[in-house]
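2.7 Reproducibility. Because tokenized structures are sensitive to small changes in the input, we list the exact sequence used for DUF368 domain-containing protein, including any N-terminal residues retained from the expression construct. No trimming or masking was applied before prediction.
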Amino acid sequence: MLKQFSFTAIKGLVIGGTMLVPGVSGGSMAMILGIYQKLISAISSFWENKKKNLIFLLLFSAGAVLGMVLFAKPLLRLIDTFPLPTMYFFIGAVAGGVPMICRQAEIKAFSFKIPLYILLGAAIVVGISVIPAGTSGSQSENWFFSAVLLILAGLIAAVALILPGISVSYLLLLLGLYDKTMQAISEFYMPFLIPLAIGLIVGIIAATKLLERAMDRHPQPTYLMILGFILGSIFNIFPGIPSLPQAPVCLLTFAAGFTAIYFLSKKEAQGTN
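Resulting structure tokens (single pass, no recycling of outputs):
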């Protein structure tokens, strides 16, 4: 039990530390670390087993917050100093989680629907990423209308928070709210944060319930689309092909990321069997 609690906190630590990296989705990291479905179930079915779900979510949240505090700045500094090797590590990590997602999709025989679901998921993520930032931004002097818009923005951001491969920070940029949100957080400006938080909470509850139902009733299409989301997210973080001096280092960091996540997800699969 203690070992399981430790793994939950450690995975939260990793997800919290990486989710502020540009283009890296917290949902993607949760998926490739094998904790995604547990998170969805714990949120959507919280009242069915309150004590167990509360402990799980508290451990995960504590790890995630600690990860953001400890690792977010060093990781961003690494990206600034060694952009190509660092991003290739993340690409390797994403690739390392693909076999685990394929196992969860329970692909037993080839079907033309398989690549279609994957391509659909990838197309959604890539499509969102190429929309110019601030396209949906809007201003309103009416406080009630502004509050309604912020609740709607929270609902949209919640879907991005839950779905792998979609960056919440980029979605806020699309809505023209990223700078305002960061400023409101730094200043604890409640008239802005409260309606946004209401939208986030309602959106997270609704999205997790829908996802849990989809995973239970249509596991293969759901996991294949999630795989597409994650593969599509590589488009957002792909830094280009490295030149010869950096190529061997990028290859090593890619291999390190792939190996770490592959064996971690394999161990997770063995632990649940």
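Residues 105 and 220 are 4 Å apart (CA to CA).
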